[in-house]
Design goal:
The structure is a single chain. By secondary structure, the chain is an alpha+beta fold. The chain contains 2 helices and 6 strands. It has a 6-stranded mixed sheet with strand order 1-2-3-4-5-6. A hairpin with a 5-residue loop joins strand 1 and strand 2. The longest helix is centred in the middle third of the chain and has 15 residues. It is globular and about 35 Å long. The chain starts with a strand and ends in an 11-residue tail after the last helix. 31% of the residues are buried. The model has no long low-confidence stretch (mean pLDDT 95).
């Protein structure tokens, strides 16, 4: 399990923790969202990502997806962005297109 720390748009501390089947983002220790994934045949598929509505507008989805993709690249896996949040992030950050496969 790995953890990355940063701050959100309000300056609150956030952590993104990699678990066996998802990345979880917490704000000051309170879980705020997650990005589910499955690994198979060298590909990491992201079917669903969500951030609790009480935390919206703080940039948490961006922090979460950025860390999930960074970690996926570091693991030498390809990305399959079934989730619209992940797909939209990749559209805005072409540096991840080289590790992205169509769903």
């Amino acid at each position: 399990m790995t953890t990355a720390r940063t701050t959100d748009k309000t300056g609150a501390e956030t952590t993104v923790t990699a678990e066996s089947d998802r990345f979880v983002i917490a704000v000051e220790g309170q879980q705020a969202g997650f990005a589910e994934f499955t690994d198979r045949d060298g590909r990491r598929t992201f079917p669903h990502t969500e951030v609790d509505s009480t935390f919206q507008g703080r940039g948490l989805a961006t922090i979460l997806v950025a860390e999930a993709l960074r970690s996926t690249r570091e693991a030498s896996l390809r990305v399959v962005p079934e989730c619209s949040m992940v797909a939209n992030y990749i559209d805005k950050h072409p540096e991840y297109q080289d590790i992205t496969d169509a769903s």
